[in-house]
Write a structure and sequence with these properties.
alpha/beta, Rossmann fold, Helicase, Ruva Protein, domain 3, 4 domains, 5-stranded parallel sheet, globular, disordered N terminus
């Protein structure tokens, strides 16, 4: 059915690949009046002859005479912006170079669709721009907690808006602490499901039967300890969004059951033979190399392809030039209601921007919280900041380690026991961050048993 029962929206399609253009015209002509051009010159003539501005434009970047460069496609986008400023321009291209994306955005494009792309995805994206062009909220202002102005973070925001209303799963990749769950929450916030539940299940936090129960639910008596019937996360999520965090840790038998849900929405509660149906959108996140897990038969390749129909990569903090100061002020403002904020002196601020933050945004936030708690209202000098950056020496080599220790032992009131306690606390905190709060895995990394680690965490007041 057309989007408008009286008159179809006009779609200007500029693509030199006749097979792709024919296919798009065939599947989209029921909803849109299609106007086609195959290069810059013909598109300019077509636009000049139009009495009304096209509602949408779908433009390939690689147009003749040089289809391997984006110049011709970018020129078309600029011309559309000049002649028909109300037209919403979407780029459909195999040229997904980041520089090209930003140039297309600067020239007036509002969305970027990579080739090859499922036609259902193209339809969703076109309809989203119809809504946006009509003045409805397309989610632009719904993004929260993704702080910074670097190209990498701008690209992340743009991709979140692009993928938010797609019906397909999204695989969110990124280092530990980079903000994968924040990205997932924003995919939900920017979608038409935002009034529905958003739920997160950490696949590394449970084992076997308990994890299956968390996912799918169970009936009373299904296993030892199942004293009541319980809904699983798929049922509780309803028509909302379910994030499967650390999905690479999902046991193989549950991978097969998850695959069934993704294929037809069907699942079974533990101890129940009646199938149930999920309408939740599934997001998955991981900081691990899934390809390596596939090679060692620890992760199903068919499940990977189902989960990664769309992918979103959250950049590490070391890739985000200039964002460290933005994040510093953002998190300082968050704690300002509870304690007087500290200040970094000029040298400390320089150290702040030079530090690589291997623990990413999570580490940065934790340093700010510790500084706020220890030094409210004070001006922080580099020597103090270095003590909070306990990993600095490991990432900057032996000389930095020696400098750090030299500064520490010459500080007024230095106590060896206190330094060792802080280092121990930082090491445990790092291990816990590496494994997203899984005590068993953190204990294995540190070479101690679970009980010993719990005891040390309690003594050092390290939170799970």
């Amino acid at each position: 059915m057309p989007l408008d029962s009286e008159k179809k929206p006009t779609l200007l399609l500029v693509d030199d690949d006749a097979i792709i253009a024919d296919s798009l015209e065939y599947v989209l002509s029921e909803e849109y009046d299609i106007e086609r051009a195959s290069d810059r010159v013909s598109s300019f003539k077509l636009m000049s002859d139009m009495s009304d501005s096209p509602t949408l434009a779908l433009v390939d970047l690689g147009l003749p005479p040089n289809t391997h460069r984006p110049d011709e496609g970018l020129a078309v986008i600029r011309k559309i912006s000049q002649m028909h400023p109300s037209t919403r321009v979407l780029v459909l291209s195999g040229q997904d170079n980041k520089k090209h994306l930003f140039q297309a955005k600067e020239d007036g494009a509002v969305d970027f669709i990579s080739k090859p792309c499922d036609i259902a995805e193209i339809k969703v994206r076109l309809k989203r721009q119809i809504i946006a062009g009509g003045g409805a909220d397309a989610g632009h202002d719904d993004i929260e907690g993704i702080i910074g102005s670097s190209e990498e973070i701008e690209l992340l925001r743009m991709q979140i808006r692009q993928l938010a209303d797609s019906p397909y799963p999204v695989l969110i990749e990124g280092e530990s602490g980079s903000g994968k769950e924040v990205a997932a929450r924003n995919l939900h916030r920017c979608s038409s499901r935002k009034q529905e539940p958003f739920m997160t299940l950490n696949c590394a936090a449970f084992n076997g039967e308990l994890l299956e129960s968390q996912l799918f639910g169970h009936v009373k008596g299904a296993f030892t300890g199942a004293t009541d019937t319980k809904n699983g996360f798929f049922e509780e999520a309803g028509s909302g969004t379910l994030l499967l965090d650390e999905v690479a840790d999902l046991p193989l038998d549950l991978q097969a059951k998850l695959l069934r849900v993704l294929e037809n929405g069907e699942y079974y509660r533990l101890g129940e033979t009646q199938p149930r149906h999920s309408s939740a959108r599934v997001l998955a996140a991981t900081n691990k190399d899934i390809f390596a897990a596939i090679k060692t038969n620890q992760f199903r390749e068919d499940l990977y392809h189902r989960l990664s129909v769309l992918t979103l990569r959250v950049p590490s903090l070391k890739e985000r030039n200039g964002d460290k100061n933005d994040l510093l002020f953002y998190f300082m403002q968050q704690v300002a209601d509870e304690v007087a904020t500290f200040q970094l002196d000029e040298d400390a601020l320089r150290l702040w921007n030079d530090y690589t933050f291997p623990g990413n945004v999570r580490e940065l936030r934790n340093i700010i919280i510790r500084l706020s708690a220890k030094y409210p209202g004070q001006t922080i000098k580099p020597e103090v900041l270095k003590r909070e950056m306990s990993e600095l020496q490991r990432h900057n080599g032996a000389s930095a380690s020696e400098d750090w220790l030299h500064s520490a032992i010459h500080d007024k009131g230095f106590q060896l026991d206190q330094l060792l306690k802080e280092v121990e606390k930082e090491v445990i905190d790092l291990a816990m961050r590496e494994h997203d709060g899984n005590v068993s895995k953190a204990a294995e990394m540190l070479g101690v048993n679970r009980t010993t680690l719990y005891g040390r965490m309690d003594r050092l007041e390290v939170k799970e």
